[in-house]
Design brief:
The complex is a heterodimer of chains A (512) and B (242). Chain A is an alpha/beta fold. Chain A is built from 22 helices and twelve strands. Helix content of chain A is 50%, strand content 10%. In chain A, helix 2 packs across helix 12 (248-262), helix 3 packs across helix 12 (248-262) and helix 16 (339-350) packs across helix 18 (378-391). Chain B is of the alpha/beta class and 242 residues long. In chain B, helix 4 (56-70) crosses helix 6 and helix 5 (81-94) packs antiparallel against helix 6. Classes of the chains: A alpha/beta (512), B alpha/beta (242).
Chain lengths: 512, 242
C-alpha cells in the first residue's frame, strides 16, 4: 500500500496551501516559535558548546543503548515500576490493553504523546472497548475532530476558534461561543477534570528516561501530564527505547534544550518525574507504574548510517523552521511525525516504498540541521533515502531512464551543446516574457513559468568574450548560433524531454 | 603588462544555457579585479541535480569529469553558491569509493570559490560607489549560506558599489527551488517562491539580488507577479562598475 505517494502529498499540500486560515495559523505559530527559540538560546552562555555536548551525549548513549536500557530497567524495577518490552505497535497495544483489562478499566486519560500516536493506541483501545480521552487541550481538539495531529508540539494548530467552539459545544452538550475564550477553556477544564477523576488508568508517553534512577520525565504546559500520572490508580508510560539518557546531569541539558528549541520557553511549565509508583506515605500518585519500552523499528537503525535520527527529542524546531512544512502543513506527511523529522523517520520506521514522496518533500535548504538541538543531519539522510529509492527501483523506470540519459548527455559536451542549440530553435514559438509558455496541463511546474534557453549559450558567447580580452575593441555580434542550421536531430531538444517527463509522470501517477 | 593571475571559471550548466549574461558578467568582474579568466570549454554540469535526486553513480561520473577538467587550475570560480558547495562539500565523500579520487577532489575543493568569496577574500577587490546605485534586498541562498557560510561577502560588494541594502524578513528562507523538488512537488515549491517574493516586495527595494542562478531561475518563474527586478549579483555589480 502506498501511504504517501507523490500524488497524495501534492494533493494534500495543495489543499493546505489553498486554506488561508491554515496558512496564517501555521505562519503565526511557527514564527512565534522561531522568535522564541532564538531569544531563549541567546540567553544561554554558550549554546553551541551545549549543543555539541548534547549531541555527544545522545550519540554515546545510542552507542551503548543496550547497557543503558538494562540499567534503566533494573533501576525502574528497583523503584517498584513494572517494565515491559514491545517489539512493535501490536505488542505495545496488547500490553497496554492487558494492563487496562487487568484493572477492569473502562476509561483511560491520556497525556499528549507522539509515541502513542505512532502506535495508534487510541484506536486499539477503542476496539478493545476502552474509552481513552486525550487531556492535552490540542490533542483533545484533534481527538474530538477525529483527525491526526498537524504538528508534533501543537497538534491542533490547524483548527480555528470557531471549529473548536463547535467541537466543544457538541462534547459538553451546550452551545459555546467562539468569541468567549475564557468560557471555552473553563468548559474544557471542567469536562476534562471529570475524566481525570473517573479514569481507572492514566496513559502517557515519556519525554525521556534516566538510566541511573530508572525514572521517566514528562513535560507539559497544561499540567495534564501531572494529573494523568497522579490521579488514576494505574499509570502506563510508553517510551521509545531511544529516549534515554544516562544521568540526571544529562537530563538537565536535555530539558533545557528541549523547551528552548521547541516553544521558546526556558523550561516547560510542568516537569513531572516518575520514579516508581507512589510510596505508601505519598499523598497521591499511581499505585502501579508500568513502563512500556517500545522498539517499533528503532533498534534496526542502530549501527546504520541512519542511527543519528534516533537522537531526536521531538522538539519540533525542524518543523517550525521548515519552509516546506509551513506551506504543506502536517497532514500531507501522512503520519503524526511530520516536517523534516517525519520525512526521514517515517520511511525508516514504516517503509520507504509506502512513503516514497517523503524524502523528496524537502528543498534541502538545511534549516532543519541548522536549528536541531542535537544537530541531526536530516538533509544528509534525506539524500541517502533518495539514493536508496533509486537503487531499490522505487523511483519509476521511465524517470530513471530520463535522469540517466540526461547525465550521460552531460558527459558528452558537444552533443549536449548540439541538442540545446536545437532546443533554442524548437522552443521559439513557445518563448514569451523571457520564459516558456506552456499550457498549465503540460507544465510540470504548474503556474510557474519555466525558463527558456537563452538565445545564445555561454559556450557560444565565450569566443567573443575571449577575444575581448585580447583586443578590447568590440567584435561584431553574431545574431544566432551558426550550428543550428547544420543540425538535423529533430525532436531531441529539451522541450520534448520535458513533455515526455510530464507524460510519463502522469502515466506513473495513474498506475499508482 | 601581462598579469600572472589566472583563474578558471565554471559557469554552471544553468548559466551556460539559461542565463549566460551571468557568466559574462562574472568574467568581466574577474578581469576588473585583475585576473585572466580561462574557460575550460568541455565543462557542463557539476552533477548536483543527480546527487540531490539520489542518482549517485551519475553524480559521481560528472564529479570525476569536473575534477579532471579543473584540477589543473590554481583557482576555480563559480557564479553560483550551490554548485560551489557541491564541489567543496560533496565531491570528496561522493568520490571516496575510488582510491585517489577523494584526494584529487579535496585538492580541487580547496581551490574552488564562489564568486563573491573570491572577489572579497582572494582578489581583495571591492567596487567603487556608483552614482544611482539601486536600493536592493539580498536573498541568502541556502547552500551558499548554510554550507559555505557566505552572505556577508555579497553584501559587502553591494554596499561598496553604493547600494543601500534593505533586509527582507528572514533573508535565509528558501526560495523554493531545490532542484527537482520544484518539479516533483511544484505546488509547495511555488508557494515558497511566492512567499519569498512577497517578502522581497515588502522591503520596497528596487532589485532582489541573488548570488545563485538556481534561486534566480526559480523566482523568475513568477517575475510577472513582482515589481522588483531579479538580478544576479554578478550582473548588478558588473553594471555598476562599468
Amino acid at each position: 500500500m502506498n501511504e504517501v505517494s507523490f500524488h497524495n502529498f501534492r494533493v494534500s499540500a495543495a489543499q493546505a496551501i489553498a486554506n488561508a486560515h491554515l496558512q496564517s495559523a501555521i505562519d503565526g505559530a511557527t514564527l512565534k516559535f522561531r522568535n522564541g527559540r532564538r531569544a531563549m538560546l541567546a540567553d544561554l552562555p554558550d549554546v553551541e558548546a551545549m549543543r555539541d555536548h548534547f549531541k555527544a551525549m545522545r550519540s554515546a548513549t545510542l552507542a551503548h543503548l543496550t547497557d543503558y536500557l538494562e540499567q534503566f530497567e533494573c533501576n525502574a524495577r528497583a523503584a517498584g515500576a513494572q517494565v515491559h518490552w514491545a517489539r512493535d505497535a501490536a505488542e505495545a497495544q496488547q500490553i497496554v490493553i492487558g494492563i487496562a483489562r487487568q484493572h477492569g478499566a473502562q476509561l483511560a486519560v491520556k497525556a499528549k504523546s507522539m509515541t502513542t500516536e505512532e502506535i495508534h493506541l487510541n484506536a486499539a483501545l477503542a476496539e478493545a472497548g476502552i474509552t481513552s480521552v486525550e487531556t492535552d487541550l490540542g490533542e483533545w481538539i484533534v481527538q474530538l475532530a477525529a483527525e491526526a495531529p498537524a504538528h508534533i508540539v501543537v497538534p491542533a494548530l490547524h483548527k480555528t476558534r470557531q471549529q473548536v467552539a463547535e467541537l466543544f459545544s457538541r462534547e459538553v452538550g451546550k452551545p459555546l461561543s467562539a468569541d468567549d475564550i475564557p468560557t471555552l477553556t473553563a468548559e474544557a477544564r471542567r469536562a476534562l477534570r471529570e475524566k481525570f477523576l473517573a479514569a481507572q488508568i492514566g496513559i502517557s508517553g515519556a519525554n525521556l528516561g534516566v538510566a541511573e534512577t530508572g525514572s521517566i520525565v514528562l513535560v507539559t504546559n497544561e499540567g495534564n501530564g501531572r494529573m494523568v500520572s497522579s490521579v488514576p490508580p494505574v499509570h502506563v508510560a510508553v517510551m521509545g527505547i531511544e529516549k534515554l539518557c544516562p544521568t540526571w546531569d544529562d537530563a538537565a541539558v536535555w530539558l533545557e534544550l528541549l523547551a528552548r528549541s521547541s516553544t521558546g520557553q526556558p523550561l516547560s511549565v510542568y516537569t513531572t518525574v516518575l520514579t516508581g509508583p507512589a510510596r505508601p506515605d505519598d499523598p497521591d500518585g499511581p499505585r502501579e507504574l508500568h513502563i512500556v519500552l517500545y522498539d517499533g523499528g528503532r533498534s534496526r537503525l542502530i549501527g546504520t548510517s541512519y542511527e543519528e535520527v534516533l537522537q531526536c527529542i521531538r522538539c519540533g524546531a525542524c518543523l517550525n523552521h521548515c519552509p516546506v512544512y509551513q506551506e504543506a502543513g502536517g497532514h500531507a506527511y501522512g503520519h503524526a511525525y511530520s516536517g523534516p523529522i517525519g520525512a526521514v523517520l517515517v520511511p525508516l520506521l514504516l517503509g520507504l516504498e509506502q512513503y516514497e514522496a517523503l524524502p523528496h518533500a524537502s528543498s534541502l535548504c538545511g534549516a532543519c540541521l541548522e536549528v536541531c538541538p542535537a544537530r541531526i543531519d536530516l538533509p544528509r539522510m534525506l539524500l541517502d533515502l533518495r539514493a536508496e529509492e533509486v537503487t531499490h527501483g522505487i523511483i519509476a523506470p521511465p524517470e530513471q531512464a530520463i535522469e540517466k540519459s540526461a547525465a550521460w548527455l552531460l558527459r558528452h559536451r558537444r552533443l549536449f551543446n548540439l541538442l540545446t542549440d536545437l532546443g533554442r530553435v524548437f522552443q521559439r514559438p513557445l518563448v514569451r516574457h523571457g520564459g516558456l509558455w506552456l499550457p498549465r496541463r503540460l507544465n510540470p511546474a504548474q503556474e510557474r513559468q519555466l525558463p527558456s534557453l537563452a538565445p545564445r549559450s555561454f559556450h557560444d558567447l565565450w569566443e567573443e568574450l575571449a577575444a575581448e580580452e585580447a583586443a578590447p575593441a568590440p567584435v561584431a555580434r553574431r545574431r544566432l548560433p551558426s550550428r543550428r542550421t547544420t543540425v538535423t536531430l529533430a525532436g531531441l531538444s529539451l522541450l520534448p524531454l520535458a513533455l515526455l517527463w510530464r507524460l510519463l509522470r502522469r502515466k506513473g501517477g495513474k498506475r499508482r | 603588462m601581462a598579469s600572472a593571475k589566472r583563474v578558471a571559471i565554471m559557469v554552471t550548466c544553468m548559466v551556460d544555457q539559461v542565463m549566460p549574461e551571468v557568466g559574462v558578467a562574472a568574467v568581466k568582474l574577474l578581469r576588473r579585479a585583475g585576473y585572466t579568466v580561462e574557460f575550460p570549454v568541455d565543462q557542463t554540469c557539476c552533477g548536483q541535480p543527480f546527487f540531490n535526486s539520489g542518482f549517485r553513480a551519475q553524480a559521481a561520473d560528472l564529479a570525476r569529469r569536473t575534477v579532471r577538467l579543473f584540477e589543473r587550475y590554481d583557482a576555480v570560480v563559480l557564479p553560483g553558491g550551490s554548485c560551489a558547495a557541491m564541489i567543496r562539500k560533496e565531491y570528496p565523500h561522493l568520490l571516496e569509493r575510488w582510491p585517489g579520487e577523494t584526494a584529487r577532489a579535496e585538492a580541487l575543493a580547496a581551490r574552488t570559490y564562489e564568486l563573491s568569496e573570491f572577489l572579497v577574500h582572494v582578489a581583495g577587490w571591492l567596487p567603487t560607489p556608483a552614482p544611482n546605485a539601486p536600493r536592493v534586498t539580498y536573498h541568502d541562498s541556502c547552500h551558499m549560506n548554510r554550507m559555505l557560510g557566505l552572505g556577508a561577502e555579497s553584501r559587502q560588494l553591494l554596499r561598496a558599489a553604493g547600494c543601500e541594502i534593505i533586509e527582507m524578513h528572514e533573508s535565509d528562507r528558501c526560495c523554493g527551488f531545490g532542484g527537482l523538488f520544484s518539479i516533483r512537488i511544484p505546488e509547495v515549491s511555488n508557494a515558497m517562491t511566492q512567499e519569498k517574493l512577497r517578502r522581497a516586495d515588502a522591503t520596497g527595494a528596487q532589485v532582489l539580488v541573488s548570488a545563485d542562478p538556481g534561486c534566480l531561475m526559480q523566482m523568475r518563474g513568477f517575475a510577472r507577479q513582482t515589481g522588483v527586478r531579479l538580478a544576479h549579483l554578478a550582473v548588478l555589480l558588473e553594471e555598476l562598475t562599468r
